[in-house]
Amino acid sequence: MNTLKDKTLLALILVFTSVLTVFGNADSTSKKKSFDASSFILHHVLDAHDWHILGEGENSIHLPLPIILLDRGLQVFSSNKFSVAHSEHGHDYAVTEDGLYAIFHEKIYRTIDGQLTFDEEGHPTEAHATPLDFSITRNVASMFLTTALLLWLFIGAARAYQKTGINSAPKGKQSFLEPLVLFVRDEIAIPNIGEKKYMKYMPYLLTVFFFIWINNLLGLVPFFPGGSNLTGNIAFTICLSVFTLYMTIYSANKNYWSHIFMPPVPKALYFIMIPIEIVGIFTKPFALMIRLFANMTAGHIVVLSFICIIFIKESAAWAGLSIPMALFISILELLVAALQAFIFTLLSALFIGSAIEEHHH
Amino acid sequence: MELVTPGLGLIFWTSLTFFFLMIILKKFAWKPILTAVKTREDNIEKALSSAKEAEEKMQQLTSQNEQILREAREERDIILKEARAAKDSIVGEAKNTAKNEAAKIMEDAKKSIENEKLKAITELKNQVAALSIEISEKILGSELSDKNKQQALMNTLVEDVTLN
Questions:
Q1: Which of A81, A142, A216, A299 has the fewest CB atoms within 10 Å distance of its CB?
Q2: Nearest C-alpha of chain A: how many angstroms from B42?
Q3: Residue whose C-alpha is closest to residue A218's, from A273, A149, A157, A165
Q4: pLDDT tens for residues A314-327?
Q5: Closest C-alpha to A133, from A216, A52, A228, A47
């Protein structure tokens, strides 16, 4: 009972700390100019080339991250190098010390004479080349953190099985992770793929489930090293859904292809049905991609929006409304984090299951 | 628009990370964990089934014991009955033998008594005969001494013979 109370208290403290962090950040912004909630939220939801920890402007604390560019060979330097601030027609951008590259709205351009020139719509002109950007961004760093966490958790748990054998009850990490692993096996893999073939797909399903779930949770932590909206980034969800698409096509049997190229309809309808079935192969993983991206991004946006009410109204009294609401959404997001990981894994298993299903009518 | 424009870098790093994470976890985590869990489940199933088997065996044994006990009891009853019958027959036989013996002894006694009696009677008869002869001699002696008497006697004797 006491531990439960302690945990609740801890959760509350975490949430309030996060609120105060945002409060501090935005407060200093509102002094300078009127608070722009949409750009503030977008900045938090999108990727970044350095990891903002605390504070604003000159006094802010950042964790510099490596910038990796494919431009006339491999260019690797720290994000600290973007130290020369420029401002042109209200567009703030930073240029490297050597004046070769500039960063504007988290996009890296090659400078012309150490400067960026802008067109009428406020974008840098076509004359600026955009090098291929393989930087370790905030999202990538956060993903590495999750990866390390997963390796530590599961390799540790697997070691425990090898050390204590199967004769003792699961302990520690094991006792927490085993029910989850069994959940993925018994509730996701076996019912959708079948008793005979599920083992082959277990590594993918387990990895995808825990990768999404832990990344979701880390994204909900409102302070360093959490808060990156990795699972709400379309690039991330594209990768995972392409993996699912690949797994589906790779394991598809004759029965699956015959359903697509010889659907059980009159031959006269083939010219409609076959294109529909072919599009269907891609819409399934596409829906996976959109679902995860939209759910996670929406969660982040809603929480931040509630916090932003305080700064839009410029009155701390609004905290009485916005903080309980943000807290409510944050707790809801804990559920959504697990739910989205579950749905992604479940649907992946379902797609794979339908691709290897044996013919029966 | 920026929100739905996938960044090339993130695609690259995600694919790479996820792929290697899956390979590493497959080898070092999922396989050992799933194998261990499977083995444990099999063990539990085996233990349960063997427990059930043992219970069945136990039940069988108990019923077997009861059977043996029942048989033993029946056998004991039979043996007791036989013993009782044997006792009865032995006692009866002994009684019979004793009775027969007693009867034989009685008969023997009776026979010897009869014999003695006969002997005594014979002896008495002999003595009586001897005495009668002696008396007859004496009478005859006196009778034959006189002629008349002799004749009378002769007549009587003849009469007797004819009568016979």
A1: A81
A2: 11
A3: A149
A4: 888 999 999 999 99
A5: A47
CA A171 vs. chain centroid, Å, equals 31
Helices (H), A88-197: 138-164, 173-183, 190-193
- What are the sequence ranges of the domains in chain A? 66-135, 139-356
Q: Is A148 helix (H, G, I), strand (E, B) or coil?
A: helix
Say if residues A134 and B8 touch (Cβ distance below 8 Å): yes
* Pairing assessment for the beta strands A66-70 and A132-133 based on DSSP bridges: antiparallel
Longest dimension (CA), chain A: 72
| Min Cα separation A288/chain B (Å) | 15
The partner residue sitting opposite A161, judged by closest CB among B9, B25, B33, is B33
* B20, closest residue in chain A (CA to CA): A147
Helix (H) or strand (E) holding A133: strand A132-133
For the whole model, what pTM was predicted? 0.75
Q: Complex ipTM, two decimals?
A: 0.85
Give the range among A60-64, A170-174, A227-231, A255-259 with minimum mean pLDDT: A170-174
Q: Residue A63 pairs with which residues in a beta bridge?
A: A51
User: In this structure, what token pair is assigned to residue B41?
Assistant: 């489940």
